[in-house]
Records
---
Amino acid sequence: MQGWLRPLVRVAVVLLAILGAYALVRVKRAELVDFVVPRTAAARYLAHEPLYRPEDGHYQYKYFPVFAPLMAPFALLPKEVAELAWFTLLAGMAWAFLRTSIVALPARRQSIQLLGWTTFFLTGKFLVKELAFGQFNLPMALLMLGAVLAAQKGRGVAAGVCLAVGACVKPYTLVLLPWLTVTQGWRAVVACLAVLSAGLLLPVTSYGWNGNLMLLSEWYRTVVQTTGPNLLSADNMSFASMWAKWLHPSDLASTFALISATVAVAFGFVAMARRRLVSEPNYLEGAYFLVLVPLLSPQGWDYVLLLAAPAYVLVVDRWKDLPPGWRVAAATAFFLTSFTIFDLLGRTLYLGLMELAAVSAGAVLLAACVFRLRWQASA
C-alpha cells in the first residue's frame, strides 16, 4: 500500500468503527439522553428563556449558566447531526485522554501498549456509559489533565486557565483547586478565578445583570433540590451516597460524609507535603484528586470515575512497587470499580454490591493505593 494511502485507510477504519458504535447505541436508545439536556438549554439560551426548570424532572439542567452558550453550535444543528457530531468528538476525546494519561506518566516502567490495553479494560465500563449517554466528563477530564501537564512544564497560569475552562463545563474541576493553590502559587489561582469569573458573567450579555444573578440562584437551587432524591441511586458513588446507603439518609450519614470528604482532601495535602521526595510530583497528585471527584460530588455518578484513568495507569505501572497487601487492595479496587457490571455478575449479586456502595469503596481503595505510592516515594 502506498505511503500516502495508509493514513487515509486508517482514518476511514476509525470513522467506520465510530459509526458502527453509534449505530449500536441508537439501536438501544432513542437519543443520547444526557447530551439533549445542555443542547436544550443552549436553545433556551438563544431564545432568552429560563434554563432551570423543575418540570424537566430527572433531566434538569444542572450545569453552570455559561455552559449553555458554549453548547449553542450544537443547538443550531439538526438534532441527529448534533448527536452524531458529539458522539464522534467523544470517541476522539476518549482516545486522547487515555493516551495522554499514559504519555504524561513520569518515569514510566511498563510499555505504552500494556498500559493502554489495561487502562482501556479498567475504564471500559465508564467509557461505554459516557458515550452511550452523550455525557460531558471527557472534555472536563482532558482539561483537568491539561492542568497537570501544564504544571509538569512549569506553566502554573496555564494550569489555572485549564481548571477554569473545565469548571465552565462542570464545576467538578474545582476539586483540583487545593492542589493548584499549594503547588502552583497565587498567579495560577488568580488566573483560574479570573477566567472562571468571566465565564460566570458571560450570560449577562443575554440575560442582563439581574437575569444572570437569577440564573446562578436557580442553578444552586436545582443542584441542592436534586441531590437528596439521587443519594440511594445504584449509580451514585459519592461519599454522601455511600453513607446514606450504609446508614440510611440521615444527619448522621451526612456528618460521616463530610468527615470522609475532609479526610480524603487532607490526605491529598499530606501527599503534596511529600512532593519533594520525587522528581515529578504533579502526576500522582492530579491522579489522586481526579479519583476524588465523583466521591466529593453529592451527585457523583459511577461513570465519572473515568477520570481515574491516570490513577489506574499509575497503579498498574508501579504494581511491583506496592507491598503484597497493597496489591490485594489494588486488585480489589479494580474489581469493585471496573467489573461490578449487571450483565457480568447477575441481578442478585450486582444489586447487593450496589446497596453496599461497592464502587465507592473501590474508589477509596484506589485513592489509598495512589497515596501509598507517594508515601513510599515511588511516584
Note: Residues 79-103 form the longest helix (25 residues).
---
Amino acid sequence: MRGPLSESKAARWGVLALVAVIMVSACFFTDIMAPLKPMLESELGWRSDDYGLFTSAYGWLNIFFFMLIFSGIILDRKGIRFTGTLSALIMMTGAGIKCWAISSTFPESARIFGVKSQVIFAALGFAIFGVGTEANFITFSKIIVKWFKGKELALAMGLQVCMVRIGIILSMVIPIPMVKAFGSISAPLVFCFILICAGFLLYLVYIAADLRLEKERGAGTGADPSVTSTDPSVTSTDPSVTSADPNEKFQLADIGFILKSRDFWIIAMLCLLFYSGVFPFLKYSVDLMINKFNVRPDLAGNIPGFMPVGTLLLTPLFGHLYDRRGRGAGMIVLGAALLMSIHVIFALTFVRAWIVAVFLMLVMGVSISLVPSALWPTVARLIPEKRLGTAFSLIFYMQNTGISATSFIIGKLLVKYCITGTNARGGSTYDYTLPMTVFAAIGALAVIASLILKAEERKKLSAGKL
C-alpha cells in the first residue's frame, strides 16, 4: 500500500472491515437465545425466570466484579492490541461454556442454589462471554477513534452501530431455521461460536496493521499509540475532560476527573435508560410476538428482525449529519421519544395486529439509529483520547447494570404476574401488558435525560463553548 497508512482511506475502512467480523458474531451470539425462549421452556424445561436469570448473567461479572471498568483501565494502560487479544480469548471461552451447557443433558434434579444446573452453567458461560464482549466493544470503539479521528469519525461509529444491528438481525432470523435443519437447539450456538473464532483470526491481521501504524507515528517500541492522546485539537470547556500532554500516560486518578464531569453523568444515565429499553426488550420480543400477536414460533423472530434493517442505512446517514453539524442532542431527544412511544403502543391491550408490530419494529430501528449516531461521537469529543477507554468502560458499566437488572426483573414479572395458561408445546403463555408498561416507563425516563442533555447543549452554544 503506497503512502502513509494513517492517511490511507482504504486502510481505515479495511481496518473497520477486519474488526467487523468478530463484532457482528459477538452481537449474534449475545441475542441468539431470544428466538429460542419458547423451545427452552418446552424442550429443556426452563421457566421465564430461568431465562431472565440467564439473560441478566451477561452483566454479572462486569457489574458485581467491576470487570468492565478494569477492561477500560487495561485498555488505556496496555493498549489496543493487548486488550483486544485478551478480550477475544475470554469471549471465546465464555461462548464455549455456554455452547456446552445448552448442548448437554442435565438430570432434572441437578440444581445449584435451587436453580437448574443447566441454567447456572449457561449463565456462567454467558457472564464470561459478557466480560470479553464488552471489553471488545470498548476496544473497537477506541480503534475507530484512533483511525478515524479528524476524518469520518461519526460515520465510522455509525457503521460500528450497523455491525451490531447486523448481529441482531442474524440472531433473530437464523436460530429457528438452524434448529429445524440440524434437529438441535444448540446448532445455532455452535455455528456462531465458529464465527467468533474466525473473527479472532481476522483480528490478528488487524494487529499487523496496527504495528505498522505505530511505526509510522514514531511511537517507539512496545508502546501502543492508542494509550496516549495524539490529537492536539481535543479540547473541552469542562475542566474534568481537558486535553492532556500527548506523552502523559493514563493514571488511575484520571477516573476521578471523568467522574467529576457533568457531561459524563448525563450521557451515562442516558445510555443506561435508553439501552435498558432496547436490549432487554429484544430478548423478550420474539416471545411477545408469539403471545400477543399470535405469530407462529418459526416466524416470530422475523418481526424483531425488521428492526435493524433500516438502521443499516440510517445510522451512517445520521452519523454523517453529525459529522457536518456537530450537534446531536435534538437527534437523541427524538430517538428517545420514539422508543417511549413504541413501548406505549405495545403495552396497549387492544393492539393485536401483527402488521402493527412490524411497523413498530421499523420505527424502533429509526430510534436506535438516531441516538447512537450522536451519542458516541459526543463521548469521543468530550473525553481526551488517553482517558477514552476508561470513559467508555464506565458508561458501558452503567449500561450493563441497567440491561441486566431490566432483563432479570422482566423474567420475574412474567412468572409472578403474567402467566395466562399453557400452550400446545407444554410451555407457558403470557400477558405482556405489564412488562411493556415497565419498558414504556424506562423510555419516559430516557426522554427526560435526553432533554437535560439538550438543555446543556443549548447552554454551551449560547456561551460559545461548542
Note: The mean pLDDT is 86.
---
Amino acid sequence: MSRKEEQGPGVAAVDLVDRLAAHRTLAGAPRAELAWLAEHGRLAHYVAGGVVTSSMGAVDGLYLVLSGRLSITVNRGAGPRKAMEWREGDVTGLLPYSRLTFTPGDVVAEESTEVLIVDARDLRELTRECHDVTSRLVHVMLDRARHFTSTDLHDEKMLSLGRLAAGLAHELNNPASALVRGAKDLTGRLMDVERASRALGASVPAPQLALVDRVTGICLSSVVSTVRSPIEQVDREDALYQWLEAHGADVSAAPPLAESAVTFEDLDALAGALGPDALDAALRSVAATCVMRRLGSEMEIAALRIHGLVSAIKGFTYMDHATVPSPVDVAQGLTDTLAVLSGKARARSAHVTVHVDPDLPRVDGYGGELNQVWSNLIDNALDAVPAEGRVDILAARDGASVVVRVIDSGHGIPADIRERIFDPFFTTKPLGQGTGLGLDLVQRLVRRHDGAVDVDSRPGRTEFRVTLPAGATPQSGKR
C-alpha cells in the first residue's frame, strides 16, 4: 500500500495542534483555526516511493506536510523531470480558490512522509472559519502559480528551441551539401577548363574562335533557364552521345551540353568550321565552361538560401533586439515563422498559403513572443492536417485591431474537449509528442499583449483567431 490512514476526521488532539503551530506555513495562525484544521483533517502516512496522486489523477484535498518529503515529476515531451518538492512545513494539493482539478504529474513520497489532509469538500467551510489560514494558503497558491508558470514557459521555449534547431539543421543540410559538392566539382572542372583552353588555343585559328565563343555564349545563357521533362532530357543526352561519337569528339561533353539550349544546328556549324582535333578541344572547352557556370550558380543559390535561413532565424527569435516593447511587423513575423517551419510543411506535403493586407498596421509588443504564438498555432495546424492538406494564414485589420487567422483542413476538434484545449498539460497527441503547454502558452502570451485568442472548429476546418490591438505605426517599413 502506498499510504496508511492513521486517524480520521476529528483528531483534534493537543499534540497535533502543537505540531501545526510549529508548521512553517501556519506558524503564528490563531490556535482556534489550527484546531479547526486538526478536527477536520485526517492524518495519512506514505511509505517511501508511495504514489500520493497519479498523473492526471484528481486532487482530493489540501495537504499539510508534517514530516518527510514529496515531489512531483512531469513529462512534457522531453522525458520525466522533477518539477517541485515539498518538505516538512510546506503545503500542497488543492488550495482555497484554486482551479486545480488534476495534477500534471505523479506526486510521490521521496521518503517516509506524514501529511494532514483536509478534504476538498471542507475547503469552502475553511475559507469561512479560518481567515488567517486562508490568507496564508492563498499566498502559497500564488507562489506556486508563479513557479509553475515560469517553468512551463521555460519548458515550452526549450521544446520550441529543439524544434527550431531540428528544422534549421534539416533546412541547412541541403544547401550546405550543395556548396560542398559544388566546391569539390569546381576544383576538378577548373583543371578541365585549363587543359581545354590550352588545346583550343593551339588548334583553332583566331577567325574560328568567334564561332566557338558564340556556342559558348548560347550554353552559358541557357544553363539555368532551360527546362525539359526527364524523358526529354534523357533523349537529348542520348542524341548528343551519338553526335559526339560520330564526330570523333569526347562523349563526356554530352551531359553539360544536354542541359543547355545549344542546338544540333549550332554543333553542325561548329563541326563544319573546325577539324576533328579542333572540334574536340572546342566542345570540351564549351562543356567545361558551362559546367563551371552551373556549379557557380548552384553555389550562389545555396549560399543565398543559407543566408535567408539565418536571417529568418534572427527575425524569428529577435535575437538582436532589446527585450522591451516595440512596434512589431506581424507580416514579417509570419514570414520568418513559415521559413522555420517550411521543412515540416514539405514533409507533410501540406499546401500553405499566406494572405496579409498590404496596409496592415504594426502591433506594440514583443516580437519574439508573438512569433512563438504564430509558431505554436502553425505547428499545430501542420500536425492536424492530413497529407496534402491545407493551412491558410490570413492577417488583416479589423477596426482598431489586427486579426491573424490560422485555418487548417484537419479533422477538427471534438466538441467534448473544445473547452479544455487551452488548459495546461491537456493534449490529444500521443505521449512524448505533445506537452499540453502550447495553446496555454499562446493564450498567456496573447493576453500579455492585451489580445484574445478564439477557436472555431468543425470537421474539415479549424480556425484559430488571434486579435491584437493595432499600433500607430504602419507596417510598410521594415524592422
Note: The first strand starts at residue 3 and ends at 7.
